Amino acid sequence: MASLPNPSVSSAATDSRTRTEALREALATRVVVADGAMGTMLQAQDPTLDDFEGLEGCNEILNITRPDIVRSVHEAYFSVGVDCVETNTFGANHAAMAEYEIADRVHELSEAGARIAREVADAFVADDGRQRWVLGSIGPGTKLPTLGHVGYTTIRDGFQANAEGLLAGGADALIVETTQDLLQTKAALLGARRAMEATGIEVPLLCSMAFETTGTMLLGSEIGAALTALEPLGIDMIGLNCSTGPAEMSEHLRYLTRHSRIPLLCMPNAGLPVLTKDGAHFPLGPEGLADAQENFVRDYGLSLVGGCCGTTPEHLRQVVERVRGLAPVERRPQPEPGAASLYQSVPFRQDTSYLA
C-alpha cells in the first residue's frame, strides 16, 4: 500500500517556499537588515569548557549543548527590528571542524544552528505577524585550497554537508561569507548548489567577500577578478563583509555598483580593530555604522545591510531606524565582459592598432 503524504511535511515545505518568495520580494523592493556579530555575543555569556564539550572556542557546539545561549543572541537582534539573523554555523565546515576532530558532525551542527534560528524567527512572526528570515551562514574555513592546504573536492563536499544541514534546519537563504580565496569561494558556492539539488530546496544564494586594508582579498585578488569569477556561478547577491570597517569598503562597493548585474550587500565591522591590553576594540559606534549604511544604500543601491565583528544589537537598532522605508536606489550597471586570473580581471577589449 502506498504511504499517505505527511500533512506536516507538506505544510512545512509550503511555508518554506512562501518565506523564500517573500524574501526575494523584500530584497527587490526595500532594504533588508541582517544582524551583527555572533561570536562576541556568545562569549559574553561565559560558556564553560563543558559547554564546549572540551573543544574550547568551537562555538558551533553550543547549538547542541547550550541552545539557550544561541537563542538569546537571535532574540536580541530580532528585538531591535532586524529582518533576518545568521545562523551560528560560521565554522560548521570540514576544514574548521577537522581541527577539532569532529568533521563528521558538520551536518548535525549546521542543522541544529538553523533550527534554533528558525524557531526564534517563527516566534517573532507569530507575535506580530511581520516576516523574519534565517540566513544560513557558511564561513570560509581555515584552509586555503589555492595554497594547497586542502583538496578542492574535500572542502566542496564539506560545504555541501554544511548547506544540507542548514536547509534541513529551515534556512531561508544561504550566505557564503568572509571569503578569502576565490577557489575556496567557488567550492562553497558549488557545494551549496549541490546541496539544493540533493534536497530539492531552492533558496537565494548570497556571496560576501572579505577585503583586506591592502585593497585585495587575502591572496591578492582584486574586486574585478572576484566579480568576474563569481557572478557567472548563479549567485543571487554579492558584496562585502568583515576584515575592515565601512570606510575601507567604499571603493569596492563603487566598483560593484557600476559593474555587478546582481544586487549588492554589505556587512562591515565596527571599524578597524584596535589592539588593547584587554584585546581587540572596535572603535566605530552605532551612529557611525548607521551613517555609513545609510550612505551606502543611497550611493550604491544596497539591498541587504548588516554588521560583522564588533557590531551589537544597538548598532543594528540604529541601522534599522536609519534605513527603514528606504528602497534600493536603481542602479544602471555596465557589465564589463572579461576573463580573470586569481589576481585581476582582463576586459575583452581590442584596441585598434597599426599593422605593418
Give the topology, please:
Layout: H1 7-29, E1 32-33, H2 39-43, H3 62-65, H4 67-79, E2 84-86, H5 94-99, H6 106-128, E3 133-138, H7 152-169, E4 173-179, H8 182-199, E5 205-209, H9 223-230, E6 237-241, H10 250-259, E7 264-267, E8 274-276, E9 279-281, H11 286-300, E10 304-305, H12 313-323, E11 338-340, E12 345-347
Parallel strand pairs: 1-10, 2-3, 3-4, 4-5, 5-6, 6-7, 7-10
Antiparallel strand pairs: 8-9, 11-12
Helix pairs in contact: 4-6, 6-7, 7-8, 11-12
State the CATH topology: TIM Barrel
Q: State the domain count.
A: 1
Helix count, DSSP H or I runs of 4 or more residues: 12
Q: What is the H/E order?
A: HEHHHEHHEHEHEHEHEEEHEHEE
Main beta sheet: strand number and arrangement? 8 strands, parallel
What structural category do the secondary elements indicate?
Answer: alpha/beta
Distance between the termini: 81 Å
Strand content: 5-15%
| Mean pLDDT score | 94
How are strands sequenced across the largest beta sheet? 1-10-7-6-5-4-3-2
Give the beta-strand count: 12
Provide the helix percentage. 40-55%
Low-confidence stretches: none
Judging by the overall fold, what is the CATH architecture? Alpha-Beta Barrel
Classified in CATH, the superfamily is Homocysteine-binding-like domain
Taking Cα atoms only, what radius of gyration do you get, to the nearest Å? Answer: 20 Å
Cα shape? globular
CATH class: Alpha Beta
